[in-house]
Amino acid sequence: MIIKGSSKTWNDGIAKSITFIVTKDCQLVCGYCYLIGKNKNERMSFEIAHKAIDYILTNKELFNDKAVVFDFIGGEPFMEIDLIDQVCDYIKVKMFELDHPWFNAFRFSFSTNGLMYNDSRVQNYIKKNASHLSIGITIDGTKQKHDLQRIYPSGKGSYDDVVRNIPLWLEQFSGSATKVTIGSDDIPYIKESVLHLYSLGIKDVNINVVFENVWKEGDDILFENELISLANTILEKEYYKDFSCSFFSDFIGHSLDCIHDNQNWCGAGKMLSIDAAGNFYPCTRFAQYSLRNKKAIIIGNIHDGIDTNKLRPFLTLDRCTQSTPECVSCETSSGCAWCQGENYDAADTPTIYQRATAICKMHKARVRANNYYQNRLSMIRSKELKKD
Amino acid sequence: MLQYLFVILDTSADSFCFYKTPTKKSELIDLQLLKDVIFFSQKENLTVNFLTGSRKLPEEYLKVMDTINHIVISREAISMNGNHIQIADYNEKTSMMQQRNESPNLILRVEKKYLPNLSKIVDSITILRRLSIVLLDMDTYIATDLDEYKIQLNKIKDSYLVNLHQNHEIELNILSDRLALIGMNNCDAGDKHITFAPNGKFYICPGFYFADGNDSVGDLATGLNIKNQQLYKLEFAPICRNCDAFQCKRCIYLNRKTTLEVNTPSHEQCVTSHLERNCTKDLLDKVQYLIPELADKEIMEIDYLDPFDKIC
Q1: A46-58 vs A81-97: helix crossing angle, rounded to 10
Q2: Residue B305 Cα distances to A227, B158, B176, B185, B188, angstroms
Q3: Contact A313 B258 (CB under 8 A)
Q4: Three-class SS of residue B256?
């Protein structure tokens, strides 16, 4: 059965992202997980989801985007598959009843650890919603790399339990991408992990370094060397023809100006997250279970609706206003990402207007490796053209 | 650059702005602390504004206050050398109170429930040089309140015109200030002024002290420590930096309260300021021929009341 591909580009930019935090529980205790407040108690009830959906679908002036992605996250969302099934049924019925414009422009989306992927309830759900579904399974690479971070509370790695579900996932979601997160300890495993994911049939590897301040002196040099080694293999084995790795891109590493390139990187505030208590957040990263140092930013709830004043800072936030002078004048700034939630959590005051710069050296290392890759790729392509 | 310092002399000092003061037992600032903060102000070249409550200040305090040029902001005029700005919270008796008051500079705080009376309130005050209206509860205004404010502003403008023709002109912050301004003239807390509280700590403004005593930005011993101070500057306020409602208070305290960011105003603050701006434009159109200084003045026609709508 072939279902749909990755959701990452589906109606990109015009679809509203609405995230249900269905549970704060997870089978794993990943080393790099930013969710510091995971627990077994905060599970969303159908009543809360029902009220949230009613609010969203009946307030068309607030939610006037052309399309919608209903995202289900946790913890691990598939731990609440029965609730999710019920919620999705209700969304579809309600949209039909209201003759809502989203009825023909919606998608359900999941990021899962993949452990329950072959569970019969999950499989039934997938079959039922096949035409409106995208699922991403997180697998970090080789068994060694994956099990370094993605572990059970006992300390046992989860690789074997995930990898057995990858063939079924790729059969159902051909062309799916996976998301890999890199912390300091993971740097030596980047190359073999990306190549391993290619060997599993995953053609697009979305990979990023964590935004938190975890980096040690010298990590940038190790990172650069690892990426250059990866670049060599991708070029020599001609993987660039069929595979991609998001560390390499021709749009990164350029200077940006504050007039034409001033948009915010992050979509916080344009999306909406709902937790088990029925509170609204500008993004899941602003819920309390994601924050180390700051209070949650709650922008409303299912009873009172959205406080649009609290969205104003998010929707007017631009790159230069939140960036340091060094970032503004940086000659390699394009592609240097940030997470608004991490910016907020790491800021000196309770503000989203202070950009965290913990990845500065890592970005510059990435740019150098990417320059190397792009220069070599360009030469290879021009030789190929001459041959043709 | 900091230019002004508000010194709260009494824990029950009256509010002169949008913030509310919780009922606190009156406690005066320690006399030595007062001397120290005056010394600090002298060194930093700051103009001092003293905020007081209903408690009569002892003579030794008045003497210390008189060691520096200052302004006193209080309900009652107190006997000393500084200039006085009087605060009043409007109620039905306020106009009577005005009759016995001689301060030429009044800050009148008006609760939402009195909004339909605003033009009458302004009409009743004719003995002043300057009147500053503070709309209390502005953060709770809904569309009908904003409509009412527009009505009241138009009535105030009409009366203002009549007074002008009779050569009786007062400065009115919500109407005439915009005539004279050529750039933003906002609250500027955290940028141009700072507040010193009786507990010996600095705050962004008195509102931050009364709302949360833990929200301080330094003390005399360690000095000022305003983190992310750039966010108090106009150029770091995306909604405000291109705005021409120059008379807007751009209240930092209300920004923080309503949008959680010191650099972002609420919808209600933007709309009230633009209603004032537009009313001033109408006034300008009518008085331009009378006042040579305004001959070249222009306030552009705009099609929005909230600059946020223009940006997003």
Answers
A1: 30
A2: 51, 21, 19, 19, 22
A3: no
A4: helix
CB A230 within 8 Å of CB A365 = no
Query: pLDDT confidence of A7, banded at 50, 70, 90?
Result: very low
pLDDT the model gives residue B94: 59
CA-based radius of gyration for chain B: 20
CA distance linking residue A327 with residue A262, whole number of Å: 12
Looking at residue B82, its pLDDT comes to 65
Side-chain-side CA neighbours of residue A62 (13 Å):
16
Report yes or no: A309 at the B interface, CB cutoff 8 Å.
yes
- Asked if A313 lies within 8 A of B231 by C-beta distance, the reply is no
| Chain A residues inside the 8 Å CB shell of B239 | 312, 316
B65: Cβ–Cβ under 8 A, 6 or more apart, which residues?
B34, B38, B50, B57, B72, B80, B82
- A1: number of CA atoms within 13 Å, CB side? 12
Report the distance separating Cα A357 and Cα A350, nearest Å: 17
Per-residue burial over B189-221, b = 16 or more CB atoms within 10 Å of its CB, e = otherwise: bbbebbbbbbbebbbbbbbbbbbeeeebbbbee
Which helix (H) or strand (E) segment holds residue B132: the answer is strand B130-135
Tokens of A35: 């969710």
CA A75 to chain centre: 14
Q: How far is CA A227 from the centre of its chain?
A: 21
- CB contacts of B238 in chain A (<8 Å) are 316-318, 321
Q: Is A308 at the interface with chain B, CB within 8 A?
A: yes
Cα A178 to Cα A6, A208, A328, distances in angstroms: 9, 11, 31
- Report cis status (omega within 30 of 0) of the bond before A75: yes
**By C-alpha distance, which of B168, B165, B167 is closest to B122?**
B168
Q: Is B311 in the A-facing interface, judged by CB distances under 8 Å? A: yes
Would you call A313 and B259 a contact, using CB atoms and an 8 Å cutoff? yes
Question: Is residue B279 packed enough to be buried (19+ CB in 10 Å), middle (13-18) or exposed (0-12)?
Answer: buried
- Burial (CB < 10 A; 0-12, 13-18, 19+), residue A321, is buried
Positions of chain B with pLDDT under 70: 78-82, 92-103
**DSSP symbols for A168-191:** HHHHHSTT-EEEEEE-GGGGGGHH
Sheet strands side by side (includes A305-306): A133-137, A106-112, A67-73, A15-21, A272-274, A279-281, A300-301, A305-306
- Pairing of β A67-73 and β B218-219: unpaired
Q: How much of chain A, in percent, has pLDDT values that exceed 70?
A: 97
B27 touching A (Cβ < 8 Å): no
Do A125 and A85 contact (CB within 8 A), yes or no? yes
Strand-strand pairing, B193-196 and B4-8:
parallel
pLDDT, tens only, A156-213: 999 999 999 999 999 999 888 888 889 999 999 999 999 999 999 999 999 999 999 9
Which strand (E) or helix (H) includes residue A124?
A: helix A120-128
